[in-house]
């Protein structure tokens, strides 16, 4: 009991919380680290070993063919073929070898193996070999199997391939063109609306607040088609193309507006009333109060919503395909990556490089603004007396 009481005094609950958070972070970071490491490996290494062996080297099983019988030379009563199992610039360290596919590591490197029929074979760590027989060799060169340890090796060719020949570069630009305005537009509109719903008295304000809260739960899939039809009708009336960035900006703004107004209104309503009243006494208009006082004080809430809205628009595929199209010059990054899954399902080096290009921008945005995230989410939850 004394030991338990001592642990409680030093903060056992806090220690449990810290350990739990650490474990959750590790669980989330391991897949991301795996994608990053795999994206810098070549196809052979990915097939031969897991990404966790990339920094220590890995043993890869391969096949090689020894020299042709015509290259044999006679040494006493035996015929000998010698050379190297590494050809075409290949290299590594041979750990073991074998003559059967079922036992590719039957003999350690450097050992002279008796493989029957008067034949012996020695393969050294550097790849050099001596193949001896007590009679002339016949047929083709003998096939052997090797376990080769390769040193750690990384390449940027995967990213070069993705950014140049796979169209990901254009899709990356398209995603930025969609995500940045689709994040800024709803923030600007929602900030004005949140100030009005917090500090301006007008009829129907409570009803509008209730409608905003209700719109948060409206599924995107339910309202997507009606919104598209309405946009096409308005576009045909004004001569606006049906497939344009303006359409997807308005769509993302409409879907993100309810939550933006809700978060910002909670935060703005929790600001000290004395500041607002003092500004009005000094003759400041509502617009001046909003620009000079409310916006600077509301930066945590603005930043927290910016994170969510940017992640939603950056990772979106459905709205982009509906409002922007599926042409090669119109695909956003998620659409291009989805196309790669179909055309290059087995090329993990290309897919992981594409995936990391997709997540690197959201990671930068999150870590740049994460210190404001909790403050913004807790906006309005606690108010002073």
Brief sketch in words of this structure:
The relative contact order is 0.11.
CATH class category name of the largest domain: Mainly Alpha
CATH architecture classification of the largest domain? Orthogonal Bundle
Structural class estimated from helices and strands: alpha+beta
Name the poorly predicted regions: 380-385
What is the CATH topology of the largest domain? Answer: MetI-like fold
CATH superfamily of the largest domain: MetI-like
* Number of distinct helices: 15
- Number-wise, the strands total 9
Note the gap between the termini.
42 Å
How many domains in all? 3
Main sheet characteristics: 5 strands, antiparallel
Return the average pLDDT rounded to an integer: 81
Tell me the series of helices and strands, N- to C-terminal.
HHHEEEEEEEEEHHHHHHHHHHHH
Q: What's the arrangement of strands in the largest beta sheet?
A: 2-3-8-7-6
Q: Quick one: overall form?
A: elongated
Percent helix, as a range, is 55-70%
Strand content: 5-15%
Whole-angstrom Rg: 33 Å
